[in-house]
Amino acid sequence: MTSTNKFNFTYDEIKVCKNTSVVTNALKHMDTPSTLYHVRDNIQDFATAMLNNMSKTAKEKVSNQVNNFINIINTMIDHAAKTNATGPDNSYTLDRFTNKILDKLANNSTQAKQARKAKSYIIKSKDPKIQPDRILKEITTLTKQDNSVQIDEAKAGLTAVKLTTNNEEALDKIKSHVETTELKDKLEMEEMKMLLPQISAVINSFSVETEETIKKRNNIPEEEFVKIVQTYDIPIHNKEPKKKLIIRLSRNARQILENQGRIYIGAESVPIKDNFYIRTCSNCLSIGHTSKFCTSKTTCGKCQGEHNTTTCNLPKTNICLLCVNNKEREVNHRPKSINCQAYIKAIKSLKAITDWSYGTQNN
Question: By the 8 A CB rule, do 241 and 204 touch?
């Protein structure tokens, strides 16, 4: 099918095009809604051809750029239909958007192919006498000696060390280094299984539905995993209470909701937010475990004394014990606030082991 508009290119040329200049030049000459419709459809095919040759990680990043671009064209269709704007106005506006988004799309297609999500590994000792702190010490020693050993996080737990990195070479060097120490043949390492992403949504109480119905309303294939893991009421003065849902879902189901920008439940269409469950201990006020598994002394969140926070009658101080226990420099703020680096780092670590690519739109 050949275009009958001012630009001269065919449907097939756009579909297999490897150079966005063809599309860019075409957009500069759009002047009617029908022309915009035609180019929008061709852009979608052009993007599909690009996406088919990319890795899964790259597809997600680039598809977001495509969706943004399509939304812009739809906006311009409405604008052209309402105002009957012609050449100069549409040409200028669309040229600006084209340079900003399509060029970024083309550049990101190469960069995204090289992007790899960080992976987390559990390192355990076969010998119960070797504590996680001893393993962590060897890893820390190597990172100080060799700057090329780049890791995102290495943290000792009660029974093992969790190591997070997107650098396979660093992982190999750590393994080789361990073989030269007394820990040789005494450790076992396995990759952590990726967690499923979670989202939250606030709806009217009467709108709660089953997972099967939610799938149907949002065009999520039946075989995809969707589960409501938690619901709780949000009291609203003199109004019907709202309800907050926490939903765990598969990567593909999450992508469908990301693309449409919201979730349809009952008669509602509401925005979604990423949900991160960070384990915090109410006994010692540290991150990474709950009070059920705590082996530390009780610490008061108000005065930092060795007693439970609920029994303290002293005024609360503006000291964040989450950051104190995580050895952060800045501790004068509320726990889990925007300035709480311990909490921010915990979320970053959780993102690294979740089967979803969190970009700026997901923060």
Answer: no
Q: Identify whether residues 305 and 340 lie together within a single domain.
A: yes
Dump pLDDT digits (tens) for 276-315.
Answer: 999 999 999 999 888 888 988 999 988 888 999 888 988 8
Interatomic CA distance for residues 309 and 286, integer angstroms: 14
Q: 16 CB contacts (<8 Å, ≥6 apart)?
A: 49
Question: What is the strand order of the sheet 119-125 is part of?
Answer: 153-156, 161-165, 119-125, 187-191
CATH number for 230:
3.30.70
- Does residue 203 sit in the same domain as residue 270? yes
| 286 in Cβ contact with 322 (< 8 Å) | yes
Q: Which of 30, 33, 23, 35 is nearest to 66 (CA)?
A: 23
Has this prediction a pTM greater than 0.70? no
Instruction: State which residues form the domain around 19.
Output: 11-114
